[in-house]
Amino acid sequence: MTGVFLQARMDSSRLPGKALLRLAGKPLLLHAMESLKKVKADIHVLVTEEGSVQAFRPLAREAGFELFAGDKLNVLRRFCDALTFFPVDTLIRATGDNPLVSWEMASRLIEEHKNMDADYSGFFGLPLGCGVEAVRRECLLRAERETGEPYDREHVTPYLYKNPGLFALHRPLAPAAFRSSFSVSVDTQEDFDRVAAVFAAIYRGGPPALDDLMGWLRGENGESGEKSGGFQEAIA
Fold it and tell me: Please, which pLDDT band fits residue 12 given cuts at 50, 70 and 90?
């Protein structure tokens, strides 16, 4: 059983209420949900905390997502509690500040993750904010039991990829045509303004394809799509 779990909350410290900021006439968070709904999975869940439930319930209903509220600050525990409530075997984790998350690369990652029998999978090299992570259920539960680091609990998956001796990791470079250091993740007003410009150029009523984003980057920024160094993982 596979589940897509999208992490979001309302009270961002640097851009409060960013989940509901309007992009192309829709809340930013709804764009992420509409893209991830295209990923074939047994369940799609918006994972949040109690203070955000009232604001998010209509969006979750509109997008066809279940809604789960858990620990506000310990996000790893929040995810593990969600896994107890929705006992999926494979978790696809995404974050709600990424309205251009790629359903195409998420679908490809799920397939590779299962074929490799990996515990953790994530592409390097995608534009920051386009990617997701795939995690085996029992490995995330193990991380919650074992880690004592606040950073691991805030960011959910670092315990796995910091311990390659304990977990089977699959962390390949993304296909060359989709590599870029450009960020479409929204953390500040400047980020939002940048992503709004992208939406103005490529949005056509539904989740933009990654090809469309890369075409815009090549035209606007002169990127070749062939870079290979200095990449971060594409989930913010």
Answer: confident
